[in-house]
Design goal:
By secondary structure, this protein is an alpha+beta fold. It has eight helices and seven strands, in the order E-H-H-H-H-H-E-E-E-H-E-H-E-H-E.
C-alpha cells in the first residue's frame, strides 16, 4: 500500500482528474441496471411484452428476440443519464478546473497523489444561490481510483474539505449523491454528515426510481472556534 498525500490541484493533473471523475460516475451503470430490473414495472415490460408477442405470433424465437431487444434498450436507457451527467460536468465546472475552483478564495480543488499519480479528487464551491454563498460550501467531484479504495483516501479528502470550510468561515458543508452510490451513502454518515433532503434530479431519474440524496455537515462558527 503506497503512501499518499493531499495537495491542491495543478493544471498538469487535468487528464487524470477527468478520467477518474468520468470512470467514477459510469461505474454506477451496472448497479443501476440491476436496480431497475427489480422494479415491478420493468418485470412487467420484460415478461409481458415478449409473452404478448408470442401469443399474437406463435413464435418463441420472435418473443426471445423481442426480450433481448428490450434488455438492450433498457441498458442504453439507464446509461444515458449517467453519461449526460458526465458530459454536463465536462462542459461546466470541470471544463476549466483552475478557473472554476482555484480563482476565488472560498473555493478549491484537491487531489490525492501517490507515487506521482493522482489517485483521488475532491472539489469545493460556494452554493450558487446568492443568499447561501457565504454560508454553505458544496462538496463536489469526490472520486478515488478503484485500485486504491479502502485505504481511507476518500475520508481524508472529505476531511480536507471540512477543514477548508472551517478556515473559510462557512457554517455548513452540503453535498448531493445518488441512491446508487452505495459507498458514498455509507461514508458520509460515518463522518458526521446528516441526510437532509431527497428528490429526483429529472423525469428520467423518477422512471428509474433513483433519487438524489442531500447530506449536510453543520460547522461551528469561526468566531466560536
Amino acid at each position: 500500500m503506497a503512501p499518499y498525500h493531499i495537495r491542491k490541484y495543478r493544471e498538469s493533473d487535468r487528464q487524470r482528474v477527468l478520467g477518474l471523475f468520468s470512470q467514477g460516475m459510469i461505474e454506477h451503470v451496472p448497479s443501476a441496471f440491476r436496480h431497475i430490473l427489480k422494479l415491478p414495472r420493468t418485470l412487467m415490460l420484460l415478461l409481458g411484452g415478449p409473452l404478448a408477442l408470442f401469443l399474437v405470433s406463435g413464435s418463441w424465437l420472435l418473443a426471445l428476440v423481442a426480450g433481448l431487444t428490450l434488455l438492450a434498450a433498457l441498458r442504453h436507457f439507464i446509461k444515458y443519464p449517467w453519461t449526460k451527467y458526465v458530459v454536463d460536468a465536462l462542459h461546466t465546472d470541470m471544463s476549466d478546473i483552475t478557473k472554476s475552483y482555484m480563482s476565488e478564495r472560498g473555493s478549491c480543488f484537491w487531489v490525492a497523489e501517490s507515487e506521482g499519480q493522482v489517485v483521488g479528487t475532491v472539489g469545493a464551491l460556494p452554493m450558487e444561490e446568492p443568499s447561501l454563498r457565504k454560508k454553505q460550501l458544496q462538496l463536489l467531484r469526490l472520486s478515488v481510483a478503484l485500485e486504491r479504495r479502502g485505504e481511507g483516501i476518500a475520508k481524508a479528502l472529505v476531511r480536507t474539505v471540512l477543514q477548508f470550510a472551517r478556515d473559510q468561515g462557512y457554517s455548513e458543508v452540503v453535498l448531493y449523491t445518488s441512491a446508487m452510490q452505495y459507498s458514498a451513502l455509507a461514508l458520509y454518515p460515518r463522518l458526521g454528515f446528516q441526510k437532509t433532503h431527497e428528490y429526483f434530479y429529472s423525469r428520467i431519474w423518477v422512471l428509474m426510481a433513483i433519487p438524489v440524496i442531500q447530506f449536510s455537515y453543520p460547522l461551528p462558527s469561526a468566531q466560536a472556534s
